[in-house]
Amino acid sequence: MGHLILSGGGDKEQSKEIDLYFIKHINPKKPMLYIPIAMNGVIPYEECFKWAYSVFNPLGIDITMWTNVDNKSFDDLKQFSAIYIGGGNTFNLLREFRISQFDILLKEYIVTEGIVYGGSAGAIILGSNIMTCAHMDPNNTDLQSINGLNLISDYSIWCHYEAGNESLISSFIKDYKKSVIALRDGTGVAVSDEGIKVIGNSSAISFTNEGKEMVHPGSFI
Q1: Fewer CB within 10 A of the terminal residue: the chain, N end or C end?
Q2: CA dist 127 to 12, 26, 90, 118, 154, Å?
Q3: Is residue 18 a contact partner of residue 119, using CB atoms and an 8 Å limit?
Q4: How do the pLDDT tens digits run along the chain, 221 residues long?
């Protein structure tokens, strides 16, 4: 398995520790692939690229942006040091990945030691069930399945977590029978063969049928 970095969201300063962790694990001699398609119809792609450039170029990373993922191959992905999947509407993002079968390609990339960074919606789709976004994102698609790529030990990912979300998370667990990793803005997890390690500037929270557990940065879920 490769290396997954999932961020709960936040601005450039909030996510700085997660970004620096990411940079330490990629080859700076190869460009990073940035996929902002979750923002389609929300923020112009030019603005998305300006944001990504402002975050990663000062860290010595060149960026290539794809605004669609149609007709891509594994050879297309091999030229990149890592893939960054940005935030936006989770339903739209997963729909585009499914239609193009990029979800299958992404799994192949990860299995062959690829590095993927998912921010907000980009993190949620890597979990087991994307309905963790339903309180934030409108579902205006004809998406037939709410199952994510399920790459985080059957956990679903809850981004932009706030204390007031606990009742929603309890309902989600009851309805979908999935445990949840809740991430505040500026909090993330790194998933590798070592396990699921909390990174960033605050604790993650693991919610299961047995209750909740605070997991501090540097510790494993």
Answers
A1: N
A2: 23, 22, 12, 10, 7
A3: no
A4: 789 999 999 999 999 999 999 999 999 999 999 999 999 989 999 999 999 999 999 999 999 999 999 999 999 999 999 999 999 999 999 999 999 999 999 999 999 999 999 999 999 999 999 999 999 999 999 888 999 999 999 999 999 999 999 999 999 999 999 999 999 999 999 999 999 999 999 999 999 999 999 999 999 99
CA triplet 177, 182, 184: central angle to 5 degrees? 160
Structure tokens of 152?
């985080």
Give the span between the Cα atoms of 139 and 110, in whole angstroms. Answer: 27
Phi, psi angles (nearest 5°) of residue 106: -65, -40
Which is it for strands 32-35 and 82-85: parallel, antiparallel or unpaired?
Answer: parallel
Residue 91, token pair as written in the block = 């339903």
Does residue 22 contact residue 123 with C-beta atoms inside 8 Å? no
User: For the chain, what is the largest distance between any 2 Cα atoms, rounded to a whole number of angstroms?
Assistant: 46
Q: Dihedrals φ, ψ of 127, to 5°?
A: -85, -170
